[in-house]
Amino acid sequence: MNISIKLIFFCLFANGISCQFCNSSLGHFSGQCNEISNCIGGAFISRNCSNNQICCVTDPEMSQDIFREPTYFNFSINSFLKFVGDTARNRAMYSLFSKALDDSKVDNCHLAAVYFTQAASETKLFTKFESDRSEKDIDTDLGNDQVGDGLKFKRRGPFPLTGKSNYILANSKLSDKLVINITEIPESLVLPSTGFLVGSWVWNENLYVLQNNKPAQKGNLNALVDGTYFNFTQITYSITSNLVDLKERSILYEKTVDELKCPRIKRGFGIVCEVQNEKGYAVPDCLADHKRPYCGCDGAKTERGCPYGFNSKNTCRNSPLIKCCLEKCFRGLDLAFLIDASDSIKLNNFVKIKKFLQNFVNKLEISENRTRFSLVKFSTDIEPISYLSNFTSKDSILNLIDQMNYDSGITNTGSALKFLNEEILNEQNGMRKVESGYPRVVVLVTDGQSNEDFNLTVKMAEEIKAKGVNIISLGIGKEINLKELETISSSLDNIYLINAFDELNLVLDNMIKTACQQPAKLILETEITSRVDLGDSKYFVFESNDTLNTSELTFEIENVKGRTNIYISDTDETPKNDSEYVPIEESNSTEVFIEGRTMEKFYSKNILLNQTNKLYFGIAGLSQENEFKIKILVRTSNSTNETTSNSTNDTTSNSTNESTQTSPTTQKPQTMSTLSYLTSFFTTTRKNNSPSSVRNFTALNLILPLITLVCFQFHVLFD
Questions:
Q1: Backbone torsions φ then ψ of 36, nearest 5 degrees
Q2: CA-CA-CA-CA torsion for 684, 685, 690, 693, nearest 10 degrees?
Q3: What predicted TM-score, i.e. pTM, was given to this entire model?
């Protein structure tokens, strides 16, 4: 009774709080109906509240006066509020989230991004800590064995606890930390402090970790977080048992990675599997409406299949997005490797680099008309091992790598890039002309930062990229200067980081995929002739300079032989999305018929430049042999039209402003809460000293207890 009376007085005198009382679904908690943004506590589902309100129950450990930041990784409150919204609830929520990060030993950028993404997705940005849906009352897998267990032990918490057996296990494991017995009062997980405490235990100990084709074991999901989309899908599948909202989680993960300035998401791969009687790897495929550079298979893949086998229910143990993929880089490249052989590398690790190079080359097709390979070793001195003109055979390249000696010395990166720019990346030594359409790629492998002139490193990297060369960087160990690699590399997607030389093979296939997908440079008014195999794609990029005064470009492609699909994007460097496909009906198309098949001969389409002044093109081969010509032309805007357009815009703007000033403002009628009305009445009587006002104020003092009593009786009847 005392609690009810306190709630009534709080209801009457706390500004903006509703007078409607409520109970949680199981009746363990009583609270007040409120907006979720104002609820500093557990947001319970309740039939007592209207559709846009929840039953808010105070959480003693949740307060705006308590401020805690994470210990191991700086996930700031500003970043947190940027995603979830700046509300009283979320400011109080941040400290509990920070404690959860510490409880799960979240100590690096990608781990923080994945942890936040999964917790925020499970709770609808921390607004909902319990599921709308009950589980089955009788379910042996969950341990539910009585009528009512489905509702009682339903899915709750940021990393949800589901089923009677899991509630019992969590209560036992956390008995020294829990202030409430969650098997007796399972709804306590809706209180954020309890939900995060139990959720951290679920993440640390009670979800399946699938790392090989042996039976999955429950363990710590931290073991799966490595910055790859492969393991992100595995973690999502472990938490949800489905991929219904994987697209939304992937988008939030991308945004969180950008906000926290993590290394870009890579594709990743899993166990060895078999495709067409050849060795492939398990990789994450792309969702139909969410194609990204970090997913998909550029080669043969199993449309159905479970690389990790089946569970006892005969369903895939791995995420359904995981497919067995066989990729080989048959696209032609002008590829140059720049290998660090300085003191810090050490001989045993240099041997591992050589093995990595040989594995890389084995995935390429080395020939005059496919990939040309160059290799330069650097420390104090610079030593060329192979030029692009040495395209005799794959075996000869492998032999040169095998004979390469370790020298030691300083990390002379700037001079190495200068040598590469002047002696390797030129037509005299085997680099093909821009008109041939071959991508130009440099791969830098290093374990440190420039020991000499940093400005020279930056200058040479810029000169190389100005030639249309794409630079990929592989940094090994903790002495890497990430800012330097970001400056050297063509994009953040082209940076790979590993902790040790033993991890080189973990990034091998991803780096091959990245190298093979690098775009060739398109130059204005320059026609490029190229080829693309059946089922393969070739990528191009056009980058406008600041002096190009144009608002529109014309993209032309002529199919000399075969058929192609064209994809265009101003953001995706490897465009594949259906939304980026250039429909034939929107282009000028001439059709010719060969052997009874329709072959689109010529496309022409006007395309606007975006703010980055970049356009990316993907050309996919549809026939057994495909040869095409591609060209970018300028369409200069009419200056008269621009002037007319600007004048019209100004007139429209003025007209809108005048309309805004003369239009009456429509306001919704305001509804006073009980407290607002009483406060208004009290203020009026204090300002007015007339006898009637004094009588009104005296009457108010007399009727307040009566109002309180009526509210209390109503609350008792309502309960």
A1: -60, -35
A2: 120
A3: 0.70
What is the number of other CB atoms lying within 10 angstroms of the CB of residue 439? 25
Q: Are 200 and 103 in contact (CB under 8 A)?
A: yes
- Please name the helix (run of DSSP H) or strand (run of DSSP E) that holds residue 652, with its range, or none: helix 639-662
Asked if 301 and 325 count as a contact pair (C-beta separation under 8 A), the reply is: yes
Do residue 32 and residue 159 come from a single domain?
Answer: yes
DSSP 222: G
Element of type H or E holding 7: helix 2-13
118 and 160, same domain (yes or no): yes
Measured between alpha carbons, how far is 132 from 56 in angstroms, rounded to an integer? 16
DSSP line for 493-539: GGEEEESSGGGHHHHHHHHHHHHHTPPEEE-TT--EEEEEEBT-EEE
Alpha helices in 526-625, H assignment, sequence order = none
pLDDT digits (tens, 9 = 90+) for 442-487: 999 999 888 778 889 999 999 999 999 999 999 999 888 888 999 9
Specify whether the CB–CB gap between 585 and 599 falls below 8 A. no
- For range 522-533, the mean pLDDT: 89
Q: How far apart are CA 672 and CA 5, in angstroms?
A: 22
- For residue 308, the 8-state DSSP code is T
- What string of DSSP letters covers 13-61? HSTT--S-EEE-TTSS-EEEEE-GGG--EEEE--TTS-TT-EEEEE-TT
Which residues constitute the domain of residue 37? 25-266
Do the domain assignments include residue 616? Answer: yes
| Mean pLDDT computed over 575-589 | 45
Asked whether residue 597 falls in the same domain as residue 718, the answer is no
Angle (CA) 137-138-141 rounded to 5° is 115
Sequence-separated (6 or more) residues with CB below 8 Å from residue 698: none
DSSP at 404: P
Residue bearing tokens 């067995």: 324
